Amino acid sequence: MLHIVACIKQVPDTKIIKMNPKTNTMDRRTAPAILNPYDAHAVEEAVRLRDKYGGTVSVVTMGPPPAVKAIKKCIEIGADEGYLITDRRFAGADTLATSYAVTKAIEKISKIKPVDLIICGKMTIDGDTGQVGPGIARRLDIPPLTSVNKVVEVNREEGKAIVHRKLEDGYEVVQSSLPCLLSVEKTINEVPYSPFPNMLKAARYQPHIWSVDDLEDVDIKQLGLKGSPTIVSKVWAPPKPEGGEILEGSSQDQVEKLLAVLLEKKELFQAKEGV
Amino acid sequence: MSEKFDCIVVGAGPAGISCAHELAKGGAKVLLLERGEYPGSKNVMGGVLYRKMMEDIVPEFYKEAPLERPVVEQRFMMMDKESAVTFGYKGMEWAKEPYNNFTVLRAKFDQWFASKAVEQGAVLVNETVVLECIVEDGKVVGVKTDRPNGEVYADVVVLADGVNSLLAQSLGFHKEYQPDEVALATMEVLKLDKKIIEDRFNLEENQGCTIELFGDATKGILGTGFLYTNKDSLSIGVGTLLSGLIKHKIKPYELLEYVKNHPMIRPYIQGSESQEYLAHLIPEGGFKSMGKIVGNGVIVIGDASQLVNAIHREGSNLAMTSGRYAAETILLAKQAGDFSENMLDTYRMRLMSGFVGQDMQKYKDSTHHFNKFPQYFDEYIPMLNKAASQMFTVDGMSKWEKQKKIWSDLGTGKEKMKLARDMYRAWKVIK
């Protein structure tokens, strides 16, 4: 029976969020908090593997108390248990401090039941770094497998997992020992419309909530702002692309106009010598 | 078979939440289903919440609920194209506990209200659409949702699915509503600095004002407009019978733009920024449009049962009261182990003998009457404006003469008779 832990995060919906033009930071009040979209795929993959091999899916997140909502979303997807670590001492954490705190939570979860596999989303849509997953793997001293877009096999008895890792021009097939950590692409699966019994379970579910004091062997200096060496020197919104041209008319007209434009600028598309 | 509840409430608006709250409080196992992302996300109303009916469910709710402002002033504007006759009442007794009514933003308020039902033990499931009632042997026994394994069962299903109530319609409880039975309301939430609102509307902190707009606000079409003060925004909207919009070939958003640009309204909203745009149908057919509201294993409440008092812009309070009565009936039915139409009819009888039913009957002809005689809105309100203008313009004419002139402006003897008759008729339908 597998025990899979999915690491998730509640993030502001960056599709909607407004930037504060003065400080160039995200005004988090302007956007609803959602489950990080990549993480939904991580949870879905964990649920599929559980359904295939049997076992348990636990989700873990670090965040403020409202992050319970994101955990409930994971229960809707099909997770069995949820753990929220929340404490003011976690606040202001960068990816280094976050991976430390989440690792401490996973260590505690694995005391309840040993963990075979950890699955993370590729990255969060508010930070875009993709560093927390590998950070956790490093701290737990287990192999990190990033950019996973297919899990071929997980074999607990033989202690191995076989996955596909996405590359620029294809994929590679990788075998790893267990436990290991996967960070997954969105293309790995589609998250279906959750069945009604899951919705009922989620509506009633109360996650386990832990503070720093509930975790073991924690070095307070490595938590939150204190444990975060990252310095943000500048943040800016990318400039909106300008120019462009909209071709109008019938399909025939548009094709002809497009062709004319492309021919006119053909040197842009020609391969440069020696490249 | 999937889980069975004592009761399933479809729709988390004021009616559904009230019902679920009271059922859970009474110890029933209740499931509240909502199609939106959260309760309130799809709900719309102008924004006046009445204290009394809300307090019947959550006493002293105003101490913790996310309200905008207690209303201390209610104004009524009879508008012509470039003028308005205004009257109203402002009283400081409304500025302190227990207050009279409040402006609210539904997205915030409904979410809070639903959380109170959950605290009582109701199970709330969002983002789930009920497709149909499951009927067995002529009795509603559950609902089928749009989710996989989506059937869920209960002794009673309460339909609080709002104005169109496709569920009640598919049970044959009512026909599809006609354009003269529903109003289409369009509204906008305009962001404006708190201090500016208080200055413009002559308010102090934590005081609110409502202005109801008649006449030219709806270009003479039967309907009303409104302008309400929230904490740091204004709610402005217009609602007219759908048939009126069709007849005059006016699009609802054009009407809203017209009101926003009206010289009587423009100064209030100047410099504000559009935050939200909402539109919704309001059931205004009244008593005569009400269909069947009770069946075997099923009860219809709130807008779904056409419970709106259009004359007094009351809806949410009727909805809440109907939800509460439904819950009380279901708790009785649960005790008796009888969920037949006969037993559940206690709900209908209580509703109809209480203020809800009495008000519905009192105004049963109002919408139909004013719809049949458009002159109230497109003739008499301009006439009133003209009379006021003449009376208050100081131009050397004596007041006697002015009164004479106003009297003669009311038209020929025959026209005056018609006016008198219309006033009497209007009095009769609302008296």
From TrEMBL, chain A:
<dbReference type="InterPro" id="IPR014729">
    <property type="entry name" value="Rossmann-like_a/b/a_fold"/>
</dbReference>
<dbReference type="InterPro" id="IPR000049">
    <property type="entry name" value="ET-Flavoprotein_bsu_CS"/>
</dbReference>
<dbReference type="InterPro" id="IPR012255">
    <property type="entry name" value="ETF_b"/>
</dbReference>
<dbReference type="Pfam" id="PF01012">
    <property type="entry name" value="ETF"/>
</dbReference>
<feature type="domain" description="Electron transfer flavoprotein alpha/beta-subunit N-terminal">
    <location>
        <begin position="23"/>
        <end position="218"/>
    </location>
</feature>
<dbReference type="InterPro" id="IPR014730">
    <property type="entry name" value="ETF_a/b_N"/>
</dbReference>
<comment type="similarity">
    <text>Belongs to the ETF beta-subunit/FixA family.</text>
</comment>
<dbReference type="InterPro" id="IPR033948">
    <property type="entry name" value="ETF_beta_N"/>
</dbReference>
<protein>
    <recommendedName>
        <fullName>Electron transfer flavoprotein small subunit</fullName>
    </recommendedName>
</protein>
Automatic annotation (TrEMBL), chain B:
<dbReference type="Pfam" id="PF26311">
    <property type="entry name" value="ETF-QO_FixC_C"/>
</dbReference>
<dbReference type="InterPro" id="IPR039651">
    <property type="entry name" value="FixC-like"/>
</dbReference>
<feature type="domain" description="FixC-like C-terminal">
    <location>
        <begin position="368"/>
        <end position="430"/>
    </location>
</feature>
<keyword id="KW-0274">FAD</keyword>
<dbReference type="Pfam" id="PF12831">
    <property type="entry name" value="FAD_oxidored"/>
</dbReference>
<keyword id="KW-0560">Oxidoreductase</keyword>
<keyword id="KW-0285">Flavoprotein</keyword>
<comment type="similarity">
    <text>Belongs to the ETF-QO/FixC family.</text>
</comment>
<protein>
    <submittedName>
        <fullName>FAD-dependent oxidoreductase</fullName>
    </submittedName>
</protein>
<dbReference type="InterPro" id="IPR036188">
    <property type="entry name" value="FAD/NAD-bd_sf"/>
</dbReference>
<dbReference type="InterPro" id="IPR059103">
    <property type="entry name" value="FixC-like_C"/>
</dbReference>
